[in-house]
Amino acid sequence: MDVDIARWIAEFIIRQPIEDRLLNDLLSLLPFSDNDMGLKKSILLRRISSEISTGSFSEMTLDCLEMIAELDYGKGNAVLDSMKAAYCAVAVDCTVKFLRENLDADTLYFNAVKKIWRNRIHWMEIAGNVGLVSEQLKDWKEEIEAATWDETVCEKISMKDTRYDALKLSRIYLDEAWEDMGPSFLELAVPLMIGAEGGVQNGNPSTEAEAGEEVHLGLNDDNGVASGDNCGDLAVDSAEKREEEMLQPLPMD
C-alpha cells in the first residue's frame, strides 16, 4: 500500500471513537513513513484521549504532552496556553493523588515529588525548555515541595479535587489541538467524491467517549512496514530514547 494512502487511512481511523484494541489491529496493517510527524502527533493525542477515558492519569500523559510540545516546536508553533494548563494539572494530580492513598501515602507522595517535580520538571527548567513551564506550574512546585514537610499545606492540597481539574483542562486542550490540526484528508475528500451534502462528521475522538486499551505505538520493522508489534517509528531526535520506550507495544487485557 502507498504510504500516503496509509497515512490518510490512519489519520481518519485515529480520530474515530472506536475501541483501542481494534485501532491497534488496524494500524498494525499499515505502512508508515518514519518522518510523519503529523501522524505521530495524532497518535499521541489519541493516547491522551484514551487515558482521559479511564478517568485517571499516569505519567504517560506527561510524556505525550512533552513530545507534542517538541513536535510543535520543531514546526515553529508556539505551545498552546491550554496545553500548559493541562500539563500543570496532570503533573499535580499525578502527585497529589497519592496523598489520598490509605497505605504508604507519605512514601508514595515523596517518590512522586522526586520523579515529577525534582527530576522531570526541574531538568526541564534547567535545560531552558520553557514551553510547558508556566507561572502556575512554578507556583504549584513550591506548594508541592512545602507539603513534604508542612502538614498544614499537605492537608490543604490533599483536599483539592485535582483529578477533576486535570480531566477538565486536558479535554479543553484536546479539543483545541484537534481543531488546530483540522479535519483528516478523508474527512475532506470523501464528501467531494460521493457528492454527499454536509460531508462526513468529524470523528475526532471524544474525550467523553468510551475507549478500550491505550493506542498501540510500535516501532517499524527493518523493512519500514508496521507489523503486529510495530506501528511506526516516528521518533524525535531530541527525545529518541524516551520515545522508544513510549512507542513500544502496549499489553492488552
Q: What's the N-to-C terminus distance? A: 30 Å
CATH architecture: Alpha Horseshoe
**Tally of helical runs:** 11
Overall number of strands? 0
What is the CATH C level class, in words?
A: Mainly Alpha
Counting structural domains, the number is 1
Residue windows where pLDDT falls under 50 for at least 5 positions: 206-253
Give the overall pLDDT as a whole number. 78
User: Portion of residues in helices?
Assistant: 55-70%
List the helices and strands in order: HHHHHHHHHHH
Strand content: under 5%
Q: What structural class do you assign from the helix and strand content?
A: mainly alpha
According to CATH, the fold-level topology is Serine Threonine Protein Phosphatase 5, Tetratricopeptide repeat
Rough outline: elongated
Q: Characterize the largest beta sheet: strand count, sense, and whether it forms a barrel.
A: none
Radius of gyration: 19 Å
Region (Disordered): 200-233
Briefly say what this structure is.
With 253 residues, the chain is mainly alpha-helical. It is 59% helix and 0% strand. The chain has a single domain, classed as Serine Threonine Protein Phosphatase 5, Tetratricopeptide repeat.
